[in-house]
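Encode chain A's predicted structure.
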Amino acid sequence: PGLIKIRLKFLNDTEEVAVARPEDTVGCLKSKYFPGQESQMKLIYRGQLLQDQARTLRSLRITDNCVIHCHRSRGATAATPALPDPGPAGPTAPGLPLGGGTLMVPTVMVVLALGWYFRINYRQLFTAPATVSLIGVTVLVTFLAFGVYGQ
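Encoded structure for chain A:
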Protein backbone atom coordinates (compact mmCIF):
# COMPACT_ATOMS: atom_id res chain seq x y z
CA PRO A 1 0.00 0.00 0.00
CA GLY A 2 1.47 3.30 -1.11
CA LEU A 3 4.61 1.76 -2.60
CA ILE A 4 5.81 2.36 -6.14
CA LYS A 5 8.19 0.32 -8.24
CA ILE A 6 10.96 2.22 -10.00
CA ARG A 7 13.12 0.66 -12.70
CA LEU A 8 16.76 1.63 -12.19
CA LYS A 9 18.47 1.30 -15.57
CA PHE A 10 22.27 1.28 -15.82
CA LEU A 11 24.58 2.13 -18.73
CA ASN A 12 25.25 -1.54 -19.45
CA ASP A 13 21.49 -2.04 -20.05
CA THR A 14 20.93 -3.96 -16.82
CA GLU A 15 17.94 -3.09 -14.71
CA GLU A 16 17.06 -3.33 -11.07
CA VAL A 17 13.65 -2.76 -9.54
CA ALA A 18 13.53 -0.38 -6.60
CA VAL A 19 10.56 -0.19 -4.27
CA ALA A 20 9.96 3.17 -2.63
CA ARG A 21 7.27 5.43 -1.27
CA PRO A 22 6.28 8.60 -3.16
CA GLU A 23 7.30 10.59 -0.04
CA ASP A 24 10.89 9.28 -0.20
CA THR A 25 13.56 11.74 -1.29
CA VAL A 26 16.19 11.34 -3.98
CA GLY A 27 18.83 11.12 -1.24
CA CYS A 28 16.86 8.38 0.52
CA LEU A 29 16.61 6.40 -2.72
CA LYS A 30 20.35 6.73 -3.31
CA SER A 31 21.29 5.69 0.23
CA LYS A 32 18.92 2.70 0.15
CA TYR A 33 20.08 1.27 -3.19
CA PHE A 34 23.65 2.61 -3.40
CA PRO A 35 24.97 2.64 0.19
CA GLY A 36 28.38 4.27 0.48
CA GLN A 37 28.25 5.43 -3.15
CA GLU A 38 25.67 8.19 -2.87
CA SER A 39 28.06 10.94 -3.95
CA GLN A 40 29.22 8.95 -6.99
CA MET A 41 25.76 8.00 -8.27
CA LYS A 42 23.96 10.32 -10.65
CA LEU A 43 20.27 9.69 -11.21
CA ILE A 44 18.63 10.92 -14.40
CA TYR A 45 14.88 11.07 -14.91
CA ARG A 46 13.37 12.25 -18.21
CA GLY A 47 16.72 13.68 -19.27
CA GLN A 48 17.11 15.77 -16.12
CA LEU A 49 19.85 15.20 -13.55
CA LEU A 50 18.28 14.76 -10.11
CA GLN A 51 20.63 17.01 -8.13
CA ASP A 52 18.40 18.13 -5.27
CA GLN A 53 18.69 15.33 -2.71
CA ALA A 54 15.77 16.71 -0.68
CA ARG A 55 13.17 16.53 -3.48
CA THR A 56 10.55 13.84 -3.07
CA LEU A 57 9.71 11.35 -5.76
CA ARG A 58 6.15 12.69 -5.85
CA SER A 59 7.37 16.27 -6.47
CA LEU A 60 9.45 14.96 -9.40
CA ARG A 61 6.34 13.14 -10.75
CA ILE A 62 8.02 9.76 -10.46
CA THR A 63 5.22 7.21 -10.48
CA ASP A 64 4.88 3.44 -10.57
CA ASN A 65 7.04 1.68 -13.19
CA CYS A 66 9.01 4.82 -14.13
CA VAL A 67 12.59 4.46 -15.38
CA ILE A 68 15.47 6.28 -13.69
CA HIS A 69 18.83 6.06 -15.44
CA CYS A 70 21.78 5.52 -13.12
CA HIS A 71 25.34 6.63 -13.84
CA ARG A 72 28.29 6.04 -11.54
CA SER A 73 30.77 8.91 -11.91
CA ARG A 74 34.48 8.34 -11.35
CA GLY A 75 34.90 11.19 -8.89
CA ALA A 76 32.59 12.54 -6.24
CA THR A 77 32.37 15.94 -7.95
CA ALA A 78 31.74 14.86 -11.55
CA ALA A 79 28.30 15.97 -12.69
CA THR A 80 28.18 14.75 -16.28
CA PRO A 81 24.74 13.29 -17.10
CA ALA A 82 24.58 10.04 -19.03
CA LEU A 83 21.81 11.34 -21.28
CA PRO A 84 21.85 14.42 -23.50
CA ASP A 85 19.80 17.43 -22.57
CA PRO A 86 16.30 16.92 -24.03
CA GLY A 87 15.98 20.48 -25.25
CA PRO A 88 17.42 23.96 -25.16
CA ALA A 89 17.49 25.74 -21.83
CA GLY A 90 16.48 29.11 -23.22
CA PRO A 91 15.11 30.70 -26.36
CA THR A 92 17.18 30.17 -29.48
CA ALA A 93 17.25 31.98 -32.77
CA PRO A 94 15.39 30.24 -35.59
CA GLY A 95 17.38 28.66 -38.40
CA LEU A 96 20.80 27.10 -38.36
CA PRO A 97 22.95 27.26 -35.21
CA LEU A 98 25.85 29.68 -35.40
CA GLY A 99 29.12 27.82 -35.88
CA GLY A 100 32.21 27.60 -38.04
CA GLY A 101 30.52 25.40 -40.65
CA THR A 102 27.55 27.73 -40.92
CA LEU A 103 29.77 30.74 -41.58
CA MET A 104 31.92 29.00 -44.19
CA VAL A 105 29.66 29.59 -47.20
CA PRO A 106 29.04 33.31 -46.50
CA THR A 107 32.79 33.83 -45.98
CA VAL A 108 33.59 32.18 -49.32
CA MET A 109 30.88 34.29 -50.98
CA VAL A 110 32.48 37.48 -49.64
CA VAL A 111 35.89 36.36 -50.93
CA LEU A 112 34.35 35.61 -54.33
CA ALA A 113 32.66 39.02 -54.39
CA LEU A 114 36.04 40.62 -53.71
CA GLY A 115 37.53 38.54 -56.53
CA TRP A 116 34.88 39.76 -58.94
CA TYR A 117 35.35 43.35 -57.75
CA PHE A 118 39.07 43.18 -58.52
CA ARG A 119 38.36 41.37 -61.82
CA ILE A 120 36.05 44.17 -62.97
CA ASN A 121 38.11 47.13 -61.68
CA TYR A 122 41.60 45.76 -62.40
CA ARG A 123 40.99 43.77 -65.59
CA GLN A 124 44.59 44.17 -66.74
CA LEU A 125 45.80 41.99 -63.85
CA PHE A 126 43.56 39.04 -64.76
CA THR A 127 44.56 36.62 -67.53
CA ALA A 128 42.03 34.51 -69.46
CA PRO A 129 42.74 31.33 -67.39
CA ALA A 130 42.33 33.35 -64.15
CA THR A 131 38.95 34.66 -65.34
CA VAL A 132 37.79 31.17 -66.38
CA SER A 133 38.89 29.84 -62.98
CA LEU A 134 36.98 32.61 -61.19
CA ILE A 135 33.85 31.73 -63.19
CA GLY A 136 34.25 28.03 -62.38
CA VAL A 137 34.75 28.63 -58.65
CA THR A 138 31.75 30.97 -58.61
CA VAL A 139 29.52 28.34 -60.22
CA LEU A 140 30.76 25.65 -57.82
CA VAL A 141 30.24 27.80 -54.72
CA THR A 142 26.78 28.82 -55.95
CA PHE A 143 25.74 25.17 -56.18
CA LEU A 144 27.19 24.49 -52.73
CA ALA A 145 25.38 27.48 -51.25
CA PHE A 146 22.04 26.35 -52.66
CA GLY A 147 22.78 22.84 -51.40
CA VAL A 148 23.47 24.04 -47.85
CA TYR A 149 20.81 26.74 -47.52
CA GLY A 150 18.20 25.38 -49.89
CA GLN A 151 17.10 22.59 -47.56
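The chain has two domains: 4-72, 100-150.
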